[in-house]
């Protein structure tokens, strides 16, 4: 577990004291929502920049004391210190912050929408940290449990509902169910497809080192056109998959690193 201090990610000082907590029922898992740049997968400095952006929004936009979450976890699995253990978050909704700590996974509703194995392990590390240092109870819930929101997104919420298993738990562990659940939620992409899942595919290809010559300002990354199809076929061939250009249950897991 790599724990990145507030100093190391460039946090501002909080405006005032936190409300103390000695124990909670457990932890609620959150996501950023909105668009999250898939380049976080290969550029850790962007993860630190996201922390600063979120803190600025919470403090300057919302007028809060500080970054709202107790801990955040990036796609690389690093834990980034927010309010820390023993302090009430401002993330779970009015009247709901006493009962659970809040852990943020750096995922969005578009762009980077699916957690890496490293992120899932990191979230479990964050939960263990809050149990050990902050008296967090056994509950692991999503933000949407008890509050009207789409947070933490379909992928993370499916994982939470599956029991938040560690991905490296072995083939007989619940992580198999989690992977299958995630992939089942993704559509089959065929040439000519459009939409946010095509864009996710495009950036995942880039993150894996494919299609770097494709300029997103020249082609539309939300359209599964010939240039992107060709890169998918190259990816499939090099990974030992059928190079049919269809992004389905065999190709999605490899793009996602599952």
What does this protein structure show overall?
The protein has helices at 6-9, 44-61, 117-134, 153-161, 175-184, 196-207, 226-238, 251-256, and strands at 3-4, 24-31, 35-36, 71-73, 79-81, 100-105, 110-111, 136-142. With 258 residues, the chain is an alpha/beta fold. The protein folds into two domains: 3-183, Peptidoglycan recognition protein-like (Lysozyme-like); 187-256, Muramoyl-pentapeptide Carboxypeptidase, domain 1, CATH 1.10.101.10. α4 runs antiparallel to α5 (175-184).
In short:
The protein is 35% helix and 13% strand. It has 258 residues and is α/β, with parallel strands linked by helices.
Report how far apart the termini are: 20 Å
SSE run: EHEEHEEEEHEHHHHH
* CATH homologous superfamily placement of the largest domain: Peptidoglycan recognition protein-like
Question: In what order do the strands lie side by side in the largest sheet?
Answer: 1-5-4-6-2-8
Poorly predicted runs of 5 or more residues: 170-178
Mean pLDDT: 89
> Can you tell me the number of structural domains?
2
CATH topology description of the largest domain: Lysozyme-like
- What is the CATH class name of the largest domain? Alpha Beta
Over all CA atoms, what is the radius of gyration? 19 Å
Q: State the helix count.
A: 8
Q: Give the helix level as a range of percent.
A: 25-40%
Based on secondary structure, the structural category is alpha/beta
Which characteristics define this entry?
alpha/beta; 2 domains; Muramoyl-pentapeptide Carboxypeptidase, domain 1; 258 residues; 8 helices; Lysozyme-like; two-stranded parallel sheet; six-stranded mixed beta sheet
């Amino acid at each position: 577990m790599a724990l990145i201090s507030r100093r190391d990610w460039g946090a501002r000082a909080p405006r005032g004291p936190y409300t103390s907590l000695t124990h909670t029922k457990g932890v609620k898992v959150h996501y950023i929502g909105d668009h999250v740049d898939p380049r976080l997968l290969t550029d850790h400095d962007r993860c630190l920049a996201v922390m600063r952006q979120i803190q600025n929004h919470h403090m300057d936009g919302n007028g809060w004391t500080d970054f709202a979450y107790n801990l955040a976890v990036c796609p690389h699995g690093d834990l980034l210190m927010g309010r820390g253990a023993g302090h009430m978050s401002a993330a779970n909704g009015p009247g709901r912050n006493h009962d659970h700590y809040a852990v943020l996974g750096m995922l969005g509703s578009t762009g980077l929408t699916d957690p890496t194995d490293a992120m899932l392990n990191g979230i479990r590390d964050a939960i263990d940290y809050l149990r050990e240092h902050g008296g967090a109870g056994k509950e692991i819930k999503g933000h949407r449990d008890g509050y009207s929101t789409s947070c933490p997104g379909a992928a993370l919420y499916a994982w939470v509902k599956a029991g938040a298993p560690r991905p490296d738990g072995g083939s007989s562990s619940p992580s198999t169910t989690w992977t299958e659940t995630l992939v089942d939620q993704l559509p089959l992409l065929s040439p000519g497809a459009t939409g946010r899942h095509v864009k996710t595919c495009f950036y995942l290809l880039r993150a894996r080192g494919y299609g770097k010559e494709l300029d997103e300002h020249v082609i539309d990354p939300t359209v599964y056109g010939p240039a992107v199809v060709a890169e998918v076929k190259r990816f499939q061939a090099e990974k030992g998959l059928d190079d049919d250009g269809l992004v389905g249950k065999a190709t999605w897991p490899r793009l996602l690193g599952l």
